[in-house]
Amino acid sequence: SSVAVFAPATVANVVCGFDVLGFAVNEPGDEVIMRLTNKPGITISKITGDDGRLPLDPAKNTVSVSVQHYLKSVDRLDIGLDIELHKKMPIGSGLGSSSASTVAGLYAIKTLLGDESDPAKLLPFAMKGEEMACGHGHADNVAPALLGGFVLIRSYEPLDVVRLPHPAGLYCAIVFPDVDVPTREARQIIRNKIFMKDAVTQWGNIAGLVSGLFMQDIDLIGRSMTDILVEPVRSMLIPDFYKMREIAMGMGAVSFGISGSGPSVFAFTRDEETAKLITQKLQQHLTSIKIGSNIYVS
Ligand code: HSE
After folding, report:
1. What is the pLDDT of residues 163-220, one digit of tens each?
2. Where in this chain does the record put each GHMP kinase N-terminal domain (predicted)?
3. Which residues, other chains included, contact 124 with Cβ-Cβ below 8 Å and sequence gap of 6+?
4. What pTM does this model have?
5. Measuring CA to CA, which residue among 68, 144, 73 is closest to residue 103?
6. CB-based contacts of 273, cutoff 8 Å, min separation 6
7. Ligand 1 mean position to 184 CA, how many Å?
8. What is this model's ipTM?
9. For strand 80-86 and strand 41-48, is the pairing parallel, antiparallel, or unpaired?
10. What is the mean pLDDT of the chain?
Protein backbone atom coordinates (compact mmCIF):
# COMPACT_ATOMS: atom_id res chain seq x y z
CA SER A 1 0.00 0.00 0.00
CA SER A 2 1.06 3.61 -0.43
CA VAL A 3 0.20 7.09 0.82
CA ALA A 4 0.84 10.64 -0.39
CA VAL A 5 1.25 13.31 2.30
CA PHE A 6 1.58 17.08 1.92
CA ALA A 7 3.15 19.21 4.67
CA PRO A 8 3.22 23.02 4.54
CA ALA A 9 5.91 25.67 4.60
CA THR A 10 6.27 27.48 7.91
CA VAL A 11 7.43 30.85 9.19
CA ALA A 12 9.60 30.29 12.25
CA ASN A 13 10.56 32.78 14.97
CA VAL A 14 7.73 35.17 13.94
CA VAL A 15 10.22 38.01 14.45
CA CYS A 16 10.67 38.16 18.25
CA GLY A 17 10.22 34.47 19.16
CA PHE A 18 13.58 33.00 18.20
CA ASP A 19 13.25 29.19 18.33
CA VAL A 20 9.93 29.36 20.21
CA LEU A 21 7.25 30.59 17.76
CA GLY A 22 6.18 29.52 14.29
CA PHE A 23 3.15 29.26 12.04
CA ALA A 24 2.12 27.20 9.04
CA VAL A 25 1.01 28.64 5.71
CA ASN A 26 -1.33 26.94 3.27
CA GLU A 27 1.16 26.92 0.41
CA PRO A 28 3.77 26.09 -0.73
CA GLY A 29 4.66 22.74 0.85
CA ASP A 30 6.35 19.43 0.11
CA GLU A 31 4.90 16.06 -0.77
CA VAL A 32 6.10 12.61 0.20
CA ILE A 33 4.81 9.46 -1.47
CA MET A 34 5.63 6.38 0.56
CA ARG A 35 5.14 2.71 -0.33
CA LEU A 36 5.57 -0.45 1.67
CA THR A 37 7.93 -2.87 -0.11
CA ASN A 38 8.96 -6.47 0.44
CA LYS A 39 12.60 -5.74 0.98
CA PRO A 40 13.47 -4.60 4.52
CA GLY A 41 15.09 -1.15 4.73
CA ILE A 42 14.42 2.28 3.25
CA THR A 43 15.07 3.37 -0.32
CA ILE A 44 14.58 6.81 -1.86
CA SER A 45 13.63 6.24 -5.48
CA LYS A 46 12.98 9.81 -6.57
CA ILE A 47 13.43 13.43 -5.51
CA THR A 48 12.05 16.25 -7.63
CA GLY A 49 12.28 20.03 -7.28
CA ASP A 50 15.63 20.11 -5.48
CA ASP A 51 17.90 20.93 -8.42
CA GLY A 52 19.75 17.72 -7.63
CA ARG A 53 20.89 19.04 -4.25
CA LEU A 54 19.43 16.46 -1.90
CA PRO A 55 20.98 13.03 -1.29
CA LEU A 56 19.17 9.86 -2.40
CA ASP A 57 21.26 7.95 0.14
CA PRO A 58 18.76 7.09 2.92
CA ALA A 59 21.51 7.48 5.54
CA LYS A 60 21.99 11.13 4.51
CA ASN A 61 18.48 12.34 3.79
CA THR A 62 16.55 14.01 6.64
CA VAL A 63 13.26 12.35 5.64
CA SER A 64 14.56 8.78 5.72
CA VAL A 65 16.71 9.38 8.79
CA SER A 66 13.79 10.72 10.83
CA VAL A 67 11.54 7.90 9.57
CA GLN A 68 14.25 5.44 10.61
CA HIS A 69 14.25 6.92 14.15
CA TYR A 70 10.47 6.51 14.26
CA LEU A 71 10.65 2.88 13.01
CA LYS A 72 13.21 2.09 15.68
CA SER A 73 10.98 3.54 18.39
CA VAL A 74 8.01 1.37 17.33
CA ASP A 75 10.27 -1.65 16.82
CA ARG A 76 9.49 -1.95 13.10
CA LEU A 77 12.94 -1.84 11.53
CA ASP A 78 11.92 -5.07 9.76
CA ILE A 79 9.70 -3.34 7.18
CA GLY A 80 10.60 -2.18 3.67
CA LEU A 81 9.80 1.33 2.47
CA ASP A 82 10.26 3.34 -0.67
CA ILE A 83 10.13 7.14 -0.55
CA GLU A 84 9.49 9.70 -3.27
CA LEU A 85 10.05 13.32 -2.26
CA HIS A 86 8.59 16.18 -4.27
CA LYS A 87 9.99 19.56 -3.17
CA LYS A 88 7.74 22.49 -3.95
CA MET A 89 9.84 25.22 -2.36
CA PRO A 90 13.47 26.21 -2.56
CA ILE A 91 16.00 24.73 -0.14
CA GLY A 92 17.59 27.26 2.24
CA SER A 93 14.73 29.72 1.72
CA GLY A 94 13.76 30.25 5.36
CA LEU A 95 10.37 28.66 4.79
CA GLY A 96 11.02 25.43 6.66
CA SER A 97 11.83 23.41 3.58
CA SER A 98 13.51 20.49 5.35
CA SER A 99 10.81 20.51 8.04
CA ALA A 100 7.99 20.19 5.52
CA SER A 101 9.66 17.15 3.93
CA THR A 102 10.46 15.52 7.26
CA VAL A 103 6.99 16.05 8.66
CA ALA A 104 5.37 14.70 5.48
CA GLY A 105 7.60 11.62 5.70
CA LEU A 106 6.80 10.98 9.35
CA TYR A 107 3.08 11.45 8.83
CA ALA A 108 3.26 9.06 5.88
CA ILE A 109 4.88 6.26 7.89
CA LYS A 110 2.48 6.84 10.79
CA THR A 111 -0.44 6.49 8.37
CA LEU A 112 0.99 3.44 6.60
CA LEU A 113 1.45 1.63 9.91
CA GLY A 114 -2.02 2.59 11.13
CA ASP A 115 -0.54 4.38 14.14
CA GLU A 116 -3.42 6.40 15.59
CA SER A 117 -1.51 8.07 18.39
CA ASP A 118 -1.37 11.88 18.74
CA PRO A 119 0.59 13.36 15.77
CA ALA A 120 2.47 15.56 18.28
CA LYS A 121 4.32 12.37 19.29
CA LEU A 122 6.16 12.61 15.95
CA LEU A 123 7.84 15.87 16.97
CA PRO A 124 10.99 14.43 18.57
CA PHE A 125 11.66 12.46 15.37
CA ALA A 126 11.11 15.54 13.21
CA MET A 127 13.51 17.46 15.44
CA LYS A 128 16.16 14.81 14.73
CA GLY A 129 15.73 15.68 11.05
CA GLU A 130 16.29 19.38 11.82
CA GLU A 131 19.37 18.54 13.83
CA MET A 132 20.75 16.68 10.85
CA ALA A 133 19.81 19.44 8.40
CA CYS A 134 21.37 22.36 10.29
CA GLY A 135 23.10 21.12 13.42
CA HIS A 136 20.33 22.09 15.84
CA GLY A 137 17.05 20.34 16.63
CA HIS A 138 14.74 23.34 16.93
CA ALA A 139 10.98 22.74 16.69
CA ASP A 140 9.60 26.09 15.51
CA ASN A 141 9.28 24.86 11.91
CA VAL A 142 8.44 21.19 12.44
CA ALA A 143 5.80 21.81 15.14
CA PRO A 144 3.61 24.16 13.04
CA ALA A 145 4.22 22.00 9.91
CA LEU A 146 2.84 19.05 11.87
CA LEU A 147 0.11 20.70 13.95
CA GLY A 148 -0.94 23.63 11.73
CA GLY A 149 -1.62 27.25 12.71
CA PHE A 150 0.46 29.12 15.27
CA VAL A 151 2.57 27.11 17.70
CA LEU A 152 4.61 28.04 20.78
CA ILE A 153 7.50 25.88 21.96
CA ARG A 154 7.07 26.65 25.66
CA SER A 155 9.97 24.37 26.57
CA TYR A 156 12.46 22.09 24.82
CA GLU A 157 13.43 19.98 27.82
CA PRO A 158 10.93 18.61 28.49
CA LEU A 159 9.29 19.30 25.14
CA ASP A 160 6.11 21.32 25.69
CA VAL A 161 4.34 22.56 22.58
CA VAL A 162 1.27 24.80 22.74
CA ARG A 163 -1.09 25.59 19.86
CA LEU A 164 -2.10 29.24 19.81
CA PRO A 165 -5.14 30.93 18.27
CA HIS A 166 -4.83 33.74 15.74
CA PRO A 167 -7.15 36.48 14.56
CA ALA A 168 -9.27 35.49 11.55
CA GLY A 169 -8.43 38.68 9.71
CA LEU A 170 -4.67 38.21 9.68
CA TYR A 171 -2.99 37.78 6.30
CA CYS A 172 0.61 37.15 5.39
CA ALA A 173 2.69 38.17 2.39
CA ILE A 174 5.91 36.26 1.79
CA VAL A 175 8.69 36.92 -0.68
CA PHE A 176 11.85 34.99 -1.31
CA PRO A 177 14.92 36.98 -2.31
CA ASP A 178 16.91 34.57 -4.41
CA VAL A 179 19.99 34.18 -2.25
CA ASP A 180 21.00 31.10 -0.31
CA VAL A 181 21.11 31.46 3.48
CA PRO A 182 21.85 28.08 5.09
CA THR A 183 20.28 27.88 8.55
CA ARG A 184 23.44 26.33 9.97
CA GLU A 185 25.41 29.44 9.03
CA ALA A 186 22.65 31.85 10.00
CA ARG A 187 22.74 30.30 13.48
CA GLN A 188 26.51 30.59 13.76
CA ILE A 189 26.54 34.36 13.29
CA ILE A 190 24.13 35.26 16.09
CA ARG A 191 25.32 36.27 19.54
CA ASN A 192 25.09 33.65 22.25
CA LYS A 193 25.22 36.09 25.15
CA ILE A 194 22.77 38.94 25.61
CA PHE A 195 22.25 41.79 28.04
CA MET A 196 19.47 41.60 30.62
CA LYS A 197 18.10 44.92 29.32
CA ASP A 198 17.73 43.38 25.84
CA ALA A 199 16.21 40.19 27.23
CA VAL A 200 13.57 42.30 29.01
CA THR A 201 12.68 44.04 25.75
CA GLN A 202 12.51 40.75 23.88
CA TRP A 203 10.36 38.82 26.33
CA GLY A 204 8.02 41.77 26.67
CA ASN A 205 7.52 41.60 22.91
CA ILE A 206 7.02 37.84 22.83
CA ALA A 207 4.42 38.09 25.59
CA GLY A 208 2.79 41.00 23.72
CA LEU A 209 2.61 39.00 20.49
CA VAL A 210 1.10 35.96 22.19
CA SER A 211 -1.38 38.18 24.06
CA GLY A 212 -2.30 39.86 20.77
CA LEU A 213 -2.98 36.47 19.19
CA PHE A 214 -5.33 35.52 22.04
CA MET A 215 -6.99 38.95 22.21
CA GLN A 216 -7.30 39.20 18.41
CA ASP A 217 -5.61 42.58 18.78
CA ILE A 218 -3.76 43.18 15.52
CA ASP A 219 -2.32 46.52 16.74
CA LEU A 220 -0.77 44.76 19.74
CA ILE A 221 0.55 42.01 17.46
CA GLY A 222 2.12 44.64 15.20
CA ARG A 223 3.80 46.70 17.89
CA SER A 224 5.14 43.56 19.59
CA MET A 225 6.84 42.27 16.47
CA THR A 226 10.30 43.73 16.83
CA ASP A 227 13.44 41.70 17.36
CA ILE A 228 16.50 43.36 18.83
CA LEU A 229 18.53 40.17 19.25
CA VAL A 230 18.67 38.22 16.00
CA GLU A 231 17.33 40.41 13.18
CA PRO A 232 20.05 43.09 13.41
CA VAL A 233 22.65 40.41 12.60
CA ARG A 234 20.76 38.24 10.12
CA SER A 235 19.30 41.15 8.16
CA MET A 236 22.81 41.73 6.80
CA LEU A 237 22.45 38.51 4.78
CA ILE A 238 19.25 39.68 3.10
CA PRO A 239 19.39 42.01 0.11
CA ASP A 240 17.70 45.34 0.84
CA PHE A 241 16.06 44.11 4.04
CA TYR A 242 15.45 47.57 5.52
CA LYS A 243 14.27 49.00 2.21
CA MET A 244 11.78 46.13 1.89
CA ARG A 245 10.56 46.86 5.42
CA GLU A 246 10.07 50.52 4.57
CA ILE A 247 8.09 49.60 1.45
CA ALA A 248 5.90 47.07 3.27
CA MET A 249 5.21 49.28 6.30
CA GLY A 250 4.53 52.25 4.01
CA MET A 251 1.88 50.17 2.25
CA GLY A 252 0.04 49.36 5.48
CA ALA A 253 1.72 46.19 6.75
CA VAL A 254 1.15 45.46 10.43
CA SER A 255 4.64 44.02 10.80
CA PHE A 256 7.59 42.89 8.72
CA GLY A 257 10.46 40.53 9.44
CA ILE A 258 12.64 37.59 8.51
CA SER A 259 11.01 34.21 7.97
CA GLY A 260 12.99 31.64 9.95
CA SER A 261 16.67 32.18 9.34
CA GLY A 262 15.98 33.95 6.02
CA PRO A 263 16.36 35.03 3.32
CA SER A 264 12.54 34.97 2.92
CA VAL A 265 10.76 37.90 4.52
CA PHE A 266 7.13 38.18 5.51
CA ALA A 267 4.63 40.87 6.39
CA PHE A 268 1.35 40.59 8.27
CA THR A 269 -1.56 42.60 6.93
CA ARG A 270 -5.19 43.11 7.84
CA ASP A 271 -6.55 42.13 4.44
CA GLU A 272 -5.76 39.97 1.47
CA GLU A 273 -5.58 42.83 -1.02
CA THR A 274 -2.82 44.60 0.94
CA ALA A 275 -0.90 41.32 1.25
CA LYS A 276 -1.10 40.89 -2.52
CA LEU A 277 -0.01 44.45 -3.25
CA ILE A 278 2.93 44.22 -0.85
CA THR A 279 4.03 40.94 -2.40
CA GLN A 280 3.88 42.45 -5.89
CA LYS A 281 5.74 45.58 -4.86
CA LEU A 282 8.50 43.65 -3.09
CA GLN A 283 8.79 41.30 -6.03
CA GLN A 284 9.23 44.28 -8.32
CA HIS A 285 11.80 45.68 -5.95
CA LEU A 286 13.87 42.53 -5.91
CA THR A 287 15.01 41.68 -9.39
CA SER A 288 15.08 37.90 -9.03
CA ILE A 289 12.34 36.23 -7.09
CA LYS A 290 11.56 32.52 -7.24
CA ILE A 291 8.41 32.39 -5.19
CA GLY A 292 6.12 34.93 -3.67
CA SER A 293 2.57 34.43 -2.69
CA ASN A 294 -0.19 35.66 -0.52
CA ILE A 295 -0.67 33.14 2.11
CA TYR A 296 -3.25 32.67 4.80
CA VAL A 297 -2.26 31.37 8.16
CA SER A 298 -3.79 27.91 7.99
N1 HSE B 1 14.46 29.14 14.75
C2 HSE B 1 15.28 28.71 13.66
C3 HSE B 1 16.34 29.77 13.40
C4 HSE B 1 14.43 28.54 12.46
O5 HSE B 1 15.98 30.94 13.38
O6 HSE B 1 17.51 29.42 13.24
C7 HSE B 1 15.17 28.13 11.23
O8 HSE B 1 14.27 28.09 10.16
Report:
1. 999 999 899 999 999 888 888 899 999 999 999 999 999 999 999 999 999 999 999 9
2. 70-149
3. 159
4. 0.93
5. 144
6. none
7. 9
8. 0.98
9. parallel
10. 93
Residue ranges of the annotated binding site are 90-100
CB atoms within 10 A of CB 67: 25
**Residue (of 183, 79, 58, 71) closest to 122 by Cα position:** 71
Contact 125, 62 (CB under 8 A): no
* Residue 233 neighbours by CB distance under 10 Å: 12
Is the Cα torsion angle 84, 24, 164, 207 positive or negative in sign? positive
Tens of pLDDT, residues 120-133: 999 999 999 999 98
Instruction: Please tell me the residue having the least CA distance from ligand 1 atom 1.
Output: 19
Count of all residues that appear for the chain in the document: 298
- Of ligand 1's listed atoms, the one at least distance from the Cα of 96 is 8
pLDDT for 60 equals 95
Residue 290 exposure: Cα atoms within 13 Å on the Cβ side? 17
Question: Any idea what DSSP says for residue 20?
Answer: T
Binding residues for ATP: 90-100
Of 13, 174, 206, best ligand 1 pocket probe by most atoms within 8 Å of the beta carbon: 13
What are residue 5's DSSP bridge partners?
Answer: 32
The answer to whether 32 touches 84, Cβ cutoff 8 Å, is yes
Reported as a single tens digit per residue, the pLDDT across 65-76 is 999 999 999 999
Q: What is the pLDDT of residues 133-153, one digit of tens each?
A: 888 999 999 999 999 999 999
